[in-house]
Amino acid sequence: MKNNRPKSTSPVVHLPKCPTGIQGLDEITGGGLPRGRPTLVCGGAGCGKTLLAVEFLVRGAVQFGEPGVFMAFEETEAELKANVASLGFDLAGLVQRKKIVIDYVHIERSEVQESGEYDLEGLFVRLNHAIDSTGAKRVVLDTLEALFASLPNEAILRAELRRLFRWLKDKGVTAVITAERGRDQLTRHGLEEYVSDCVILLEHRVYDQIATRNLRVVKYRGALHGTNEFPFLIGDEGISVLPITSLGLNHKISSERIATGIPRLDAMLGGRGFFRGSSILLTGTPGTGKTIVAANFAQAACRRGERTLFFSFEESPNQIIRNMHSIGLRLEPLVKRGLLRFHAARPSLYGLEMHLATMFKEIVTFQPDVVVMDPITSLMDAGTASECRAMVTRLVDYLKAGQVTSLFTSLTQGGHALQQSEASMSSLMDAWLLLQDYEGNGERNRVLYVLKARGMAHSNQIREFLISDHGIDVVDAYIGASGVLTGSARAAQAALEKAAVLASQQEAAQLKREVERKRAALERQISGLRSDYETEAMELRRIAEQVGTRTFVLGTERAASGILRQADAKVAVGTRGKPGHGRRN
Amino acid sequence: MKTKTVRRRASDSHRRPAKLWQLRLYVTGQTTKSQTAFSNLKKICESHLKGRYRITVIDLVKQPQLAKGDQILAIPTVVRKLPKPVRTIIGNLSDTAHLLVGLDLRPAD
Question: How many CB atoms lie within 10 A of CB A35?
Answer without folding.
Answer: 18
